Amino acid sequence: MSMNKWESYMILGVNVAAVQISDVIQQMDEWIEERSFGHCIAVTNTHVVTESWFNPEYRKVLNTADFVVPDGMPLVWLGRLCGYSLKRRVYGPELMETFFKEKGRKRRHFIYGGKPGIPERLMENLLENYPGIHFVGSYSPPFRQLTEDEDRGIVDMINDLEADVIWVGLGAPKQEKWMHDHRNVLRSPLMVGVGAAFDFLAGEKSQAPSLFREHGFEWLWRLMSEPKRLWRRYLLYGPLFIGLVTLEKMRILKF
Asked: How far apart are CA 57 and CA 70, in angstroms?
């Protein structure tokens, strides 16, 4: 893990940064100003942490990110139990919108991920809300794995465009692995994995009401919206996360 000035706490072997959205934006801006390349931010929820419990290699990938930030309210609650005064979650769509609002006009942005058409709608919506943002390009990769030549071509294209921030919306665990595999070849200061933020901000999917999001019930809204796709994540992984964290707190499960 890259050294930074922010404290973190451990959940199931994953180092979660004890930060809020304002802290993340401040750090993002500093990295861009420094022009040091390859910084990664993983916007993380309970599903991601539980997935990493099954896959130690994925856990290593997460822990090599500069920031693993608490996108899920249970991660915020656990941070409070560890003594950190975390008032809110680092909600991916809000982090993205806030950065565009406060810092976005002076930066160069690249959009990587999303189904065909999603990056274009995302950029259109953000430009409408925050005129003056400079998008240097976008790419919607196929579902299959890219060939070496295709991957090299994408890397060369992004490097030629000189993006300050690469916003990555591939979904977990794919986006974290992609950032990890490309951080040493992409000459951009920063990559941010924001998951479903692309779909929400492009208007492809509806966000949960603020009351749900701020009190730990976003999972229920999303489960009702997409039961066939998300039932396993919330009805199996949710209770499993609670059980594993309980065992960790009782010092029965150790990392």
From this structure: 20
In this prediction, residue 103 carries a pLDDT of 94
Give how many domains the chain has, as a whole number.
1
Q: Model pTM?
A: 0.92
Q: What count of residues does the chain have?
A: 255
Asked if the structure places residue 245 within a domain, the reply is no
In DSSP notation, 76-130 reads HHHHHHTT----S---HHHHHHHHHHHTGGGSEEEEEESSTTHHHHHHHHHHHHS
- How many CA atoms, within 13 angstroms, populate the side-chain half-sphere of residue 155? 17
Range of the domain at 56: 8-209
pLDDT beyond 80 at 255: no
pLDDT at 32 over 90: yes
The DSSP call for residue 65 is S
